[in-house]
Write a structure and sequence with these properties.
Elements (H helix, E strand, L loop, with lengths): L2 E5 L3 H13 L3 E5 L2 H10 L4 E4 L2 E2 L2 E2 H11 L5 E5 L4 H10 L3 E4 L4 H12 L19 H13 L6 E4 L6 H10 L8 E5 L8 H6 L16 H4 L4 E5 L6 H13 L1 E2 L8 E2 L3 E6 L3 H6 L5 H7 L2 E4 L10 H15 L6 E2 L1 H9 L5 H15 L4 E2 L1 H4 L23 H19 L4 H8 L3 H10 L8
Parallel strand pairs: 1-2, 1-3, 3-6, 6-7, 8-13, 8-14, 9-10, 10-13, 15-16
Antiparallel strand pairs: 4-5, 11-12
Helix pairs in contact: 13-15, 17-18, 18-19
Length: 448
Amino acid sequence: MRRVLVVDDEEDIRELLALTLARMGLDADCAGTVQEARERLAAHRYQLCMTDMRLPDGDGLTLVRYIAENCRDLPVAVITAFGSLENAVTALKAGAFDYIAKPVSLDQLRALVKSALRLPEAAPAAPAGDELIGQSAALQQVRDLIGRLARSQAPVHIHGESGTGKERAARLIHAKSARAAQPFLAVNCGAIPENLMESEFFGYRKGAFTGADSDREGHFQAAAGGTLFLDEVGDLPLHMQVKLLRVIQEKRVRRVGASAEEAVDVRIISATHRNLRDLTDAGKFRQDLYYRLNVIELRMPALRDCREDIPLLAGRILERLATGNGMRPPRLAADAVQALCNYPFPGNVRELENVLERAIALTAGTDIEAGDLGLEAPAASPAAGAGSVPALQGATLQDYLDRVERQAIHDALAQTRYNRTAAAKLLGVTFRSLRYRMERLGMNEDAR
């Protein structure tokens, strides 16, 4: 029989949870303190742990961290009467599988237990064609984090430039999770007309408005039991952000025209190429929603930061494109490989695919030469030194501005011998602002 560890300092709560689990066909052991829970973990193998936040000899986070370090395959859920956004974020970042505030309904408890017990002991292999290709250190870190995120229910926010594979990363998290057999639904938030957003996300009842001639489910209902991927979430209008926050917190939706809410069990993964923190500071994105979506952040590296992966990635793309066209994959000549590795790729992997697809169509022989790629030579940059500005090179405005800002910070640090306090004064910003900007731009601690 599958065994669950229940940790709570109130005996009646322990008995109630144990009784509910027994009705689900599960055996339950109970503990009232962190120390007692550790002793039981050492003596038995469990498939799930549910812990209260406040315990006599510590808190639930201490137990969450202990399990994350010593029982890596054991999902742990935090159930507490002292629920808050800050506690939820802290628990999920510490490694909790899920976080629920008391009072817990039976539907919520059953959904949590079913999701946890579907977790595989080891992450399944990625579906063919969905894996992230490359051996660079940056990509290895992304793959490792995806494997860990797949074993959690925590909301994930994927940040990266356009074309870096944010949706592919979201699909991998879903495919390696306990929700893999359930739907994965990708929604581009910027492509939905504002007046249709509520009905598209939450569905509607027959007669709710003109043209609603039948009931229709929304994106949350369509993704029930699975994962809802909200791409370009920064494009959501403020009134929709309020409704989305409520759904995430309450795990219930109300269809347009309906009088009652219905429970939904959906994991949220969001993504954007914009900086949500900047949008929050500008008042264009709700701070509470930002913290709810950005529980764990996954940064997708730009292709120019993984140049050593370009030859392998290009070869795989050529194989896929040639197979789709019923032809033998062409070979990249040495000068073509060098040209690809030297090109900045402002459009990242998506641009690389377009370049290679065009090269296949234009090449006259069996080998793709550098001239067949049609790459524009990188613009000659000004001599290095203070005040030099990177060339636009076809990048988006945000990418260009980031490069200019990075160069300005580097020059200020160089002029002040890497005294960040003096550099901040030279740039006309506060020290705290400079630290934030360096962190956002991915600059090293000393930026040398």
